[in-house]
Design goal:
Blueprint: H1 17-25, H2 50-69, H3 75-101, E1 106-107, H4 109-121, H5 127-139, H6 154-158, H7 168-174, H8 180-183, H9 186-193, H10 195-215, H11 219-242, H12 263-268, H13 275-280, H14 296-306, E2 310-311, H15 318-328
Antiparallel strand pairs: 1-2
Length: 334
Amino acid sequence: MVVLRSQTTTLRYQTGSDVMEEKDALGLDEAETFVGRDYKTNGYPWPYRMKGIVLFSLLHIGGIIGLFYLHKIKLMTWIFGLVLHILCQICITAGNHRLWAHRTYKAKLPLRIFLMIGQTTTIQNDIFKWAVDHRVHHKYTDTDADPHNAKRGFFFSHIGWLLLNKLPEFNEKFKNIDISDLLADPVVVFQKRYYSILCTIFGFVMPALVPWGLWGEDFITAFFTAGILRCIIGHHTTFLVNSAAHTWGYKPYDIRIDPGENIAVSILTTGEGFHNFHHVFPQDYRTSEHGWRFNLSTAFIDTMAAIGQVTDRRFVSDDVIRKRQKRTGTTGLK
């Protein structure tokens, strides 16, 4: 067992030309990463991120079309879409979030490949960018450096941040983030290099191909339902962590911060709604002290540990939790 400090754990950061050069080698060009100015100030070149606007517009149009196909899909397609959605959510929470962004446990290669494929199927950007954004979010929560700063409004923190260029504060803080562990993972590097191809295969083709090939579902019907509509539902489910969990919820561990415990978000996201706990103890693999309750991703990680695919799960002791709660939580500060 690893007992963490009661304060929010600070990641190690690294600067240097070698790291920056490796960023460039992975395709993090200036147009994608170090872009934009505050659209509320003078001198901004163009606040909107057209790639995000076009992509999300097309996906939402496709999702609406999928709604009109729902009445005609076969039962097996319903089941397939639901199972795929749950697996993808687990791959985001247990993979992107708890493994790659926070390194709360270690996973062997077969599991990392599985999590990468499931994460790719969600069409939520590649692991590398997802993890980097999230590390900046945790170190500079709800400030101008936070990519989805909740203080800029519910819509912005939910999806608007993906439609606008990042602020200069993010661009400056990003340069100090240590990405060496991500660059050392061949699964992350492989996905980053071939993300467009992998995303097309697993995010668009596979969800339609499986129902069509295995039980004779119409390909177009499966594409817009199990493919696009499932994707959109997955997006908005994940986005609730950035918006709803930073807006509503009780705060048993630290009443001074905005993230709260939101049971509805926890259920929808397979365990990511215990957000007050998570921001106080970000290196705890459970993201909650409540075990498997409303936390399917924790159950998944524990199951993988039982079969030898997961090691070195990190968590805080009950004693540390109680002391922090007494000092800054609902039983402490007033």
